Amino acid sequence: MKKFTLMLLSLTLAGTLCACGAEKAPADDKAVTQEAAVSHENEPAADKAAASDKSAGDKKAGSWKPGASKENAPAPQNESLSLTEGFWVVDSIEAEGVTLTPENMVEYLETTAADIMTISFRDSGTAYLRLYGNSGLTLWMEDDESITLSVAGEYMSFSKAAPGMLVYEETDGSRMVLKHQKAEPDELGQDAFLSFDPVFSKADACAMSTFMNYGVYDIEDNVLYGPHRVTGGWKLSYRRFDPNEGNSFVKFSDEIVDLDDNYPNFVNKVGDYLYYIRRDDDAERLCRVNLAGGAPEVLYDKNSSFLSVIDDRLYFTDENNYFVSTDLDGNNMTTLVDKPVFYVYPISDGWFIYQDDENNEGLAIFSVLQGQDITLTTCRSYSPIILGTDLYYFTLPDGAEGPRTMRKLNLITREEEAGELPVGCGIGIDGDKIYTTNNNSVDLADWKSLTCNEAEVGMTDVDMYLSPDYRIDHDWEGDRITGRYMFKNATGGGEPIA
């Protein structure tokens, strides 16, 4: 193992304090320079094999598995103390015959114990890591004797010395002791990485897939909300259905309730209201309609898109493609990103992913709390979808149209894999399979083999909605929707949607 340079006294005497090759930042500097963080600004991702399974695995480069799942984790030494509750903070450092305590660390190292190292383990298998004033996300795993972190491609193991105590020791006897505390250290302040934990379940991946295909449908309590074809156009409507247990197909009711006269995108049911982007002839407007009755309300009377509703706030892109937020009435607008962005989607508490139009249409993540951008990709990247800690997306050649190819980037390790076969523009992941246009799908483990015949025959069908229970696809002929079907995932039976 490469030395982790925790003989801090020696480093201090040498006049340099560093960790994993990152220079020490001031305690109040939240810039992400530690390599365990999600990424470095504008740094291309390494083209390596990704490792994203959430179960415990071998501690070898390229095959790391995020932290032991709680179902399989061994019982802690002290049943009253949970590893994933609270914080683990440096309590002492011993090196070259000198012992540093929190009281004299400021004198010798010019920073506090919590800034030197603080760890917060999550049940998801990620861990918040603060290191010399810098912070980020890393992976962890547990066995009977130790806790191991994956840090910048290296592995740092802490022995479980006693309840509430973890010890890291180097071969020369230098060691660092971390102790558990329930309270959040004051030094962490408003660190956005405390809330960053982008670990997506199958249901999360389905919801993100639906959004990336413009969120045309929403389903709640056996009611389908979305477009309804009528003579001469479309209406926004809802229609109840019976899951029809024991049968291959759902059973729709005969009653269709129309709500608006236009085709919707980004449909969100929130309480008694349906929020959506209405596609008018002259603009795409943010609207809502009360499901109990009444006329639709226009909340933003200009072009808008990529609508999400989170904690009584609307998040969307405005007429300039800037990312903004309002209250549920469309008032009190706040600009969050003042540049053109697309595919904006929430991935963790206060964090969003988006395509950056000014950075070659690459992908980035953004912290609302700190206004911080972190670049993920610098190639032309589209339709991002997350499962576990892996980000799937397709890319186009720079500066020219060409075949779309799939890629997978681990958001924590930054390891990346690339497919070589052309795929369609409609990508979806349900946790077990990955889908693209023209009814093409493969098991997710075989994602590199995903391809389609769109270039030869055009686009004939697209999966528009995915959930753990249902899938909705549209048949296409040219630029016209010629059929819509709702499938039960358990049976594969597809029922036509009127």
Radius of gyration: 25 Å
Strand order of the largest sheet: 3-5-6-7-8-9-10-11
Mean pLDDT: 82
How many E strands?
A: 39
Q: What is the overall number of helices? A: 5
Q: What is the CA–CA distance across the termini?
A: 62 Å
Poorly predicted tracts of residues: 1-80
**What is the 3D shape?**
elongated
Major beta-sheet overview: 8 strands, antiparallel, barrel
Structural overview:
With 498 residues, the protein is mainly β. It starts with 7 loop residues before the first helix and ends with a strand. The strands form nine sheets. It has an eight-stranded antiparallel beta barrel. The longest helix is centred in the middle third of the chain and has 11 residues, at 202-212. The chain is elongated and about 85 Å long. It contains five helices and 39 strands. A hairpin with a 2-residue loop joins β6 (126-131) and β7 (134-142).
